[in-house]
Design brief:
- The chain is an alpha+beta fold and 213 residues long.
- Helices cover 24% and strands 24% of the residues.
- The protein has one domain: PK beta-barrel domain-like (M1 Pyruvate Kinase, Domain 3, Beta Barrel).
- It has 6 helices and 13 strands.
Length: 213
């Protein structure tokens, strides 16, 4: 899977005054990947972004066409990084990647830790209502990685599978279970929460939203 762009962003204000670093741009040359993610990338909301288990974000590039089909012309969706992703990659999605999968990118090794939970900032950025609802219904959520081995990578490098994680737990299944509309089974929640490579943030969300689990 070719990484067409590695992106980072700095804090800025949207048209409604919301401060965010969701708008990211491709970086030139070799880029460092460390425990905090991509060098030069900023997170405004440190409560929900940027800690080690959610260091690197990938929103599948193939979903851009789906968003345009669903919502028409989206001027803000104008290139790599437009959905806040650090990695712009075609040919990967939430149904083909599992919690705990490891990949080599350049000299770095990254590991899938959890799905991305969509928030209202996405709608403010894109200027469309209903995007979050559509993402929740479809499971086209994107995914987060932790950096297992620090290193450098550049656009044009290949995201190479190294090791498969929990084969029963695709990112989409985990997303629907924790953030979807249906009431999940307790044993499923317990199983997800005890996966050895799952994000502590996802475990927290499981306990917060489903305290009986």
């Amino acid at each position: 899977m070719l990484v067409e762009a590695i992106c980072a962003g700095r804090a800025a204000s949207l048209s409604d005054g919301k401060r965010t670093a969701i708008v990211k741009s491709p970086l030139d040359g070799p880029v460092e990947f460390g425990p905090g993610g991509v060098a030069g990338d900023e997170q405004v909301d440190r409560r929900h972004h940027g800690f080690p288990a959610m260091a690197v974000h990938l929103y599948p590039a193939d979903h851009y066409a789906w968003l345009s089909e669903q919502f028409g012309d989206l001027p803000a969706l104008d290139g790599p990084g437009s959905m806040g992703e650090n990695l712009f990659v075609h040919g990967i999605d939430e149904t083909s990647v599992h919690i705990g999968d490891r990949f080599r990118l350049g000299t770095a090794v990254i590991e899938v830790s959890q799905p991305r939970q969509p928030c209202a900032t996405i709608e403010r950025h894109l200027g469309r209502k209903g995007v979050v609802k559509a993402i929740v219904a479809s499971g086209r959520c994107g995914m987060f990685f932790r950096v297992v081995e620090t290193g450098t990578a550049r656009a044009g490098d290949v995201l190479t599978p190294l090791e498969q994680g929990a084969t029963d737990w695709t990112v989409r299944r985990a997303f629907h279970l924790v953030y979807g509309a249906s009431k999940p089974e307790r044993d499923e929640l317990d199983e997800l929460a005890t996966l050895p490579r799952v994000s502590d943030r996802l475990v927290r969300d499981i306990r917060r939203k489903h305290p009986e689990a």
